[in-house]
Write a sequence for this structure.
């Protein structure tokens, strides 16, 4: 990857090639200002500089490595000769130069930049601030604001807001803020995560996607440069603050970068950089004013003659007055928009309550105002809000949240906030009686359409250890989670309700290292009649640098509970496909099975991921098999069934894992497009000593064969069990009697000793 450390004003030859119609230097500045406003650019913010500072943060290094997109003009891009250019690049150089160090730049496909920061490969990345990203990174003060919009083909379908995207395919930049929002906002949106904005626009232009949701600044310029028949079809949405993101484990780097950014506003360095790039940042499609300015030499004689006519003079006077009024109104609207944006940054839109960041500021202020008084913080979860929204619609759900938030305000708490997902927070220096609090906040909520009884879980913590505001809120949320898990209304924080420290450490280690220490182990599946290998199951192992080799039962539940197990699933599918290609190329084809969770299908595009992986490695779909538990099948069955049907059309076989241990056992075999069942080991292990277990297994095999399904028995540990399974017609056996799960290199040797069938 090419790097650049030079900080200077870019020349026109170094910027992306664009078709420009320059503004006339004679054009009135007021008209230009109106034109810039209509272009949608938001002025750069001026972060507040602390009134006092006891020490200047220092950084013990000679350089700092920034990462960013290689194709995001005018903010940042990589030239044909490998140099990094753009507004962000010059700003990063300025911040480093202030401290006497060097800024290095690493431009890449955007979706890789957050991962690089996650894994410690770079020091800082400029990106949009979001709650999801705050969980992973620290953010400096914002230094710019950018809006998003929906784009579609000219004369094509329209979409005024995100809700209109349901049922359509939508192109977004991979791992972008828009991709994050669509994953959480609309499950029916088929979004394509692509390399950059230009690629997303081409997907809309060639019909691969119906719409694209993209940042407006770069998009409108690229549409003009690429001469695409694409229009912005929605008003601006999602105004986002731009800031530098730093790994949470780098507090000194964060304080240093925050200080340098504030210093650049104080010494004018930021504004010099902004002025250098202002025309590029506030670019818009040339209009009639620029056209007139360019050809003023031709229009001037005509205007001179017309101006001699008194009527034209009067009309021109009226027009100037009208345009002046329009400009004044536009500036007023702009000021109002900036005020709304500032308010939205600190408040939740549906409820109007302070958001998490603002609530934490209020906690800090309260603690400083009454240092001798004990501060009590309560987290209040409004249970079942998702059910209300699904049953009565989003409008009723938002009305319930607003009404409940207003109720909390009316009780006179010293601080009230909304944390999202139906969870509120309050704080007070007065003691909070559990009985009184429950009595006053659980009375029915009167809505316009109906009266609803709120179902609550409450967690309370009293500050006796001078905890920080962040720690107080965390403890309160830990207590409310314990209350909800134990089906209690009230839970006071105690240290023994904290999650297992080892689980937290494993989760921390995973966030730092990802899948880099994980390995795919394989266990063969054998034809009990011929003794040949007819497949294998891929099982993940974590070779932890401190704890050694960990089985999936240790860490997979932790990742599932945190909602990030999909990354392991994606990695395992890629590993299985690579190994299947290796065996097929060696003349020993061996289909490989991978376990997937219900959350993988319900929260992610498993179908698209599988198709992309097969295409990337050029492997037949029949070489990959996916296994899902019975419980996973009955979780939102309609959506799971749809995903499995798409996988079957692709050619990927799906099977039921741990057959007989779920809730429905047999009824779904006719409803879901599965091709095999895997009988759970607790039935298989005892068939030689229990006639009842033998009858269960024999019945399951006969039923599966009647339905045309393949049967795999797992957990066979001796030859007698294998012989029994063979006699009742089981198609494949998996267990320690043949082999334990082994690394890929050992399995390759094992496969050489057994004749595999394709």
């Amino acid at each position: 990857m090419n790097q650049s450390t030079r900080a200077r004003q870019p020349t026109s030859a170094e910027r992306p090639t664009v078709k420009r119609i320059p503004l006339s230097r004679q054009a009135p500045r007021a008209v230009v200002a109106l034109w810039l406003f209509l272009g949608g650019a938001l002025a750069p913010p001026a972060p507040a500089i602390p009134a006092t500072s006891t020490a200047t943060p220092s950084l013990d290094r000679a350089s700092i490595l920034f990462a960013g997109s290689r194709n995001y003009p005018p903010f940042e891009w990589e030239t044909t000769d490998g140099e990094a250019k753009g507004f962000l690049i010059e700003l990063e150089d300025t911040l480093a130069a202030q401290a006497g160090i060097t800024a290095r730049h690493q431009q890449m496909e955007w979706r890789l930049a957050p991962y690089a920061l996650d894994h410690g490969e770079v020091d800082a990345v400029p990106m949009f601030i979001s709650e999801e990203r705050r969980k992973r990174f620290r953010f400096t003060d914002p230094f710019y604001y950018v809006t998003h919009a929906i784009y579609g083909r000219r004369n094509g379908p329209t979409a005024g807001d995100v809700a209109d995207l349901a049922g359509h395919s939508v192109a977004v930049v991979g791992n972008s803020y828009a991709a994050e929002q669509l994953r959480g906002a609309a499950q029916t949106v088929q979004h394509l995560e692509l390399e950059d904005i230009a690629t997303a626009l081409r997907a809309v232009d060639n019909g691969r996607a119906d719409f694209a949701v993209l940042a407006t600044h770069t998009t409108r310029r690229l549409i003009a440069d690429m001469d695409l028949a694409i229009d912005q079809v929605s008003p601006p949405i999602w105004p986002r603050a731009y800031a530098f993101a730093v790994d949470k484990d780098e507090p000194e780097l964060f304080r240093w970068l925050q200080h340098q950014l504030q210093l650049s506003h104080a010494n004018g360095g930021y504004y010099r950089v902004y002025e250098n790039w202002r025309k590029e940042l506030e670019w818009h499609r040339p209009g009639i004013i620029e056209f007139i300015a360019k050809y003023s030499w031709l229009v001037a004689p005509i205007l001179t003659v017309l101006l001699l006519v008194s009527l034209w003079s009067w009309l021109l006077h009226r027009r100037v007055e009208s345009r002046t009024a329009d400009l004044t109104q536009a500036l007023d609207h702009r000021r109002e928009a900036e005020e709304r944006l500032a308010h939205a940054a600190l408040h939740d839109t549906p409820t109007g309550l302070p958001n998490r960041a603002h609530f934490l500021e209020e906690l800090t202020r309260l603690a400083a105002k009454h240092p001798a008084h004990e501060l009590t913080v309560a987290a209040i979860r409004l249970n079942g809000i998702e059910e209300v929204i699904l049953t009565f619609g989003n409008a009723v759900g938002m009305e319930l949240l607003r009404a409940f938030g207003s109720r909390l305000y009316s009780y006179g708490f010293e601080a009230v906030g909304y944390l999202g997902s139906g969870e509120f927070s309050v704080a007070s220096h007065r003691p909070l009686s559990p009985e009184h609090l429950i009595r006053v906040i659980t009375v029915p909520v009167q809505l316009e359409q109906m009266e609803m009884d709120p179902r609550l879980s409450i967690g309370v913590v009293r500050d006796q250890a001078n905890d920080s505001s962040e720690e107080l809120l965390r403890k309160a949320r830990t207590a409310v989670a314990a209350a909800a898990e134990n089906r209690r209304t009230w839970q006071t924080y105690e240290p023994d309700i904290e999650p297992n420290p080892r689980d937290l450490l494993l989760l921390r280690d995973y966030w730092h290292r990802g899948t880099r220490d994980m390995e795919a182990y394989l266990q063969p599946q054998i034809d009990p009649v011929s003794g040949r290998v007819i497949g294998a199951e891929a099982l993940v192992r974590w070779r932890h640098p401190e704890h050694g080799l960990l089985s999936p039962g240790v860490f997979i539940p932790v990742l599932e509970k945190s909602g990030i197990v999909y990354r392991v699933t994606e990695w395992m599918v890629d590993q299985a496909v690579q190994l299947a290609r290796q065996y097929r190329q060696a003349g020993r084809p061996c289909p490989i099975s991978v376990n997937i969770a219900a959350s993988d299908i319900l929260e992610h595009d498993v179908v698209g991921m599988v198709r992309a992986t097969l295409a990337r490695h050029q492997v037949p779909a029949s070489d990959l098999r996916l296994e899902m538990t019975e419980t996973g099948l009955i979780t939102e069955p309609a959506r799971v069934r749809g995903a499995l049907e798409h996988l079957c059309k692709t050619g990927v076989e799906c099977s039921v894992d741990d057959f007989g241990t779920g809730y429905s056992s047999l009824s779904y075999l006719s409803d879901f497009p599965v091709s095999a069942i895997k009988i759970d080991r607790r039935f298989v292990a005892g068939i030689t000593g229990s006639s009842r277990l033998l009858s269960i297994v024999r019945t399951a095999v006969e039923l599966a064969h009647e339905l045309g399904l393949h049967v795999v028995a797992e957990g066979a540990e001796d030859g007698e069990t294998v012989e029994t399974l063979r006699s009742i017609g089981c198609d494949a056996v998996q267990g320690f009697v043949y082999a334990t799960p082994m690394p890929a290199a050992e399995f390759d040797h094992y496969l050489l000793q057994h004749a595999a069938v394709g």
Notes: The CA atoms of residues 30 and 565 lie 55 Å apart.
